[in-house]
């Protein structure tokens, strides 16, 4: 089928030669004939190529099979050799023997190689270059595998190479033939030729020398056993001595000895991390071996290895362990804990050199053993893997929910580990585990925790009631049986809740007790980082419970806000989350100002997602961030169920801003010092829009409300805010209703303030009663607001108690005054810029730059003081401007000289002058 | 002839315009131009011409007016004997002439008008030698690049030329607000040929900002007959006070100071703009220098390698990288001048006001 009838006759001599080689290999007596003779003999009277084609293939396959049988290692041969019957390939074996017949890896490789060799030689003979290229690659690959174990080439392999080489070279040399080949075939031919040459160079094999020896080899091949046969013999011996390492897996349980397990264990450990080892297989083998363990110490040892091997299956940091492995891993760790508890003579050491393992008999007798391993590290890793799996799963699937159910087991498990360490009073791991537990607990409300606890105890009870069936089964099962059933489980019932071992119960403490207990233990013994985290966990939970005041005090006492920038990013994220949660709870309590203060840093930057680690934001500088950083960022993400709704945060923030800052935005003279530029910009942006449709989204709605507020329509503003659907997400719906009442009340007051700021200058006096009517506020609250505005300096006026009015003293600056203030501002800006320019020149000298900075701030202070002084006499004004001007001149002239090169001189002089002015004239 | 746009329009005269004038002026002054040039030390202004200027400028206010100065060039002193106004520009922002919508034609017409005017004046035996121009100004805001450009284009044909500036707002305060201005020689040398005004050149010359435009003392000279008439008119009335004298005692100071303040503020803004330019240049320069240093280092390494290999070395100049051009300092200097102008005005004005205030306080105290 591989051959076409269009194949030209010219090909024939080449094929002929190949065929001759094979004839030679098989029948030495042909050797004396010359090529031409032989060709004539072989082809005989055969002149019709199309007919001969089929014959060719037939004869050829015959010869190749006989050739391989001649070289002495056919499968039928093997069957006859005693031990080799174990080495038969499992799949091809159809024997009825109850013991499994195993073929060693080497043998299997070798027979595979033989198969390929046969194929290759056939193709070379046929001149089927296209498929030959592929089979050649396979051949090389297969032989590489074999060589890695035998360290030398088998004779038949070299012969095959030679055969290919000859075929290729002869075809290649004959131009006529080459021309007649189809394009694909000729391409393959030249590719093959190149690869062959390259490969031969790499393995430094010289075929020409071999070809001369060939005759001898051929003749000797039958009498002299191949290297392959030696190997088989060695294997056989090994196996007889019971040293075959895989043997243990299939041996009868009773046959297994302590040493065998030990041996196999070492073998598996040696393979760990090597290329080509299947990690899952290692895990399975180890798991099986754990059931065979002869004493607790050995089981512990095996368990340690199982756990590490299971962690290995995850592969990289960016992927998570598969859920089933994770579960079995957790069971293993729990079993480990149980063993360690029951056998106090076994200790786990983390770092120090452990003492040598006692001899077998001592071990079996229960002598003290020290093993290397860290329960704490296992627990942490398991927890990390759990978090990672949550990060990676799609939060809107059932899978995620079923995974979430495991959290209660994680808590139970961590609790177990903690108890273990508590018993041994090891502080460092205790801190670590306590932190991990807190990490699960801190974002749960008491009611959520109750639900988790109920759920967990139910399930644990269910598990405990299950009849003990498995262990007995386990004892009897063989390696394969064990995992046949296992495999079924893996695929079938993934969501099975009953994977957790029996005999555990959920801790009976309330959330608050648990958290305070854990945090206090960390406060007592932890290092700085864990203390900080503990505080943050605690604060987060406190504010989640709605105790904002307490949370605030806690955070303020910790002085964290000053040092948090020096912490690691995870902790900073936690801090941000804590602040966000505090903002939420402050809002719920009606502390709008506090809510704004809490949320400003997070929301005003527009990177809330990033700051809360709730999604990677697409930044404008995406190109600047490299792949590594992005990966790191992904790893930091908080699992979905712990997210704080950013939209809710934003609406809270914006509403708080609106309630506190609308009037200050309108306060034009103090505009520049207005705190919240983001909000201001938003309002400006909103006002710039040509058409304002009905509000969509949080920001739009709040802006719309703000606009109403500015216009004095507090009722519409209140309606706007109340109609926001996001409030349903505010924890505690009945609570949110009361919060909205508070919001409305605050809206009224803000409307009043805004009104006064905007319109007060139009009135001589304002009646408090009228105001209270206008804004549906009590007279007292109007009075309070007005008084506050009067005292804080935003408004000039005076209260008149008897008539319950207040008089407004409007003082608009004259045009001259405003011109002067404008000039003063311009000069200040100019001066700043000048200092900066000077700063660039003298930046080498940081000390002076700093002093200049100092001076600058003095001037700014001066500017501000002047800024507020609205009663500036115009004469005084013009004078100060003059003075300022002359200072300007000095700056300029000094600057000129500066650029002339006499930097130091200029700087000194400038500083002197500035000092003189700022010290003498202005301040 | 030569149209001077309003200062606030910031329109620079096109070369064609200046050439028109230059050619015509060159013809007119062929003989004079050959004489040795000495700087102008004083300007003598004929009374009649002065009145004409004042009238023209005052009439045009609040718009600005320009006109030509005619007269004689006698050694160090310029004798301005006559003047004529240029046709008034339309109030349109683009500075067209009122009688022509097309700017180019208008300019030509302006030049033609000027030539015609000169011819006519010569026919009635008036000095038809251009010695400069006059312009009205508003609160001393005449320091701009146009002034410099105009001076330079005049200087191409007449070595000694002045600009007489008249400020109607000052005149209201009872001051004679005529001032004669010219460019300093130092500045001409620095700026003259190429119009380049780099820091390096400025330092070489030791040029200061106050050295750009210098004021020439101006004297008003009347003919004997005119003096006689004046004397006749004033006889016996010298001691009497007139309304102008009372006006001087007005305490209303706000408008003047206000305007000056606003202008000062604008100047500072301009300054800030200039400063930004410099800062931008500095940034560019720094970037360029670092890039260039990097490139140079690479090139040196390459050259070292080539030297080792015995190949030809590559040049160490690079055509691809060009140092950024520093911004012109002229504007800076001009703004500084402008600021100085405003501040001087303010100073003078407030001093007077202070005196008045003292006076008033004294009077009210004595009562």
UniProtKB/TrEMBL annotation, chain A:
Keywords: Cytoplasm, Initiation factor, Protein biosynthesis. Residues 219-661 form the Eukaryotic translation initiation factor 3 subunit C N-terminal domain. Residues 739-809 form the PCI domain. Pfam families: eIF-3c_N, PCI. One of its GO terms (cellular component) is eukaryotic translation initiation factor 3 complex. InterPro entries: EIF3C, EIF3C_N_dom, PCI_dom. Residues 44-77 have a biased composition (Low complexity). GO terms for molecular function: RNA binding; translation initiation factor activity; translation initiation factor binding. The keyword Iron does not apply. Residues 42-105 are annotated as: Disordered. The keyword S-adenosyl-L-methionine does not apply. PANTHER family: EUKARYOTIC TRANSLATION INITATION FACTOR 3, SUBUNIT 8 EIF3S8 -RELATED, EUKARYOTIC TRANSLATION INITIATION FACTOR 3 SUBUNIT C-RELATED. This is PCI domain-containing protein. It comes from Ostreococcus mediterraneus.
TrEMBL record, chain B:
Pfam families: eIF3h_C, JAB. GO terms for molecular function: metallopeptidase activity; translation initiation factor activity. Keywords: Cytoplasm, Initiation factor, Protein biosynthesis. It comes from the Eukaryota. Residues 43-187 form the MPN domain. Residues 292-328 are annotated as: Disordered. The keyword RNA-binding does not apply. InterPro entries: eIF3h, eIF3h_C, JAMM/MPN+_dom, JAMM_MPN+_peptidase_M67A, MPN. CDD domains: MPN_eIF3h (cd08065). GO terms for cellular component: eukaryotic translation initiation factor 3 complex. HAMAP family: eIF3h (MF_03007). This is MPN domain-containing protein.
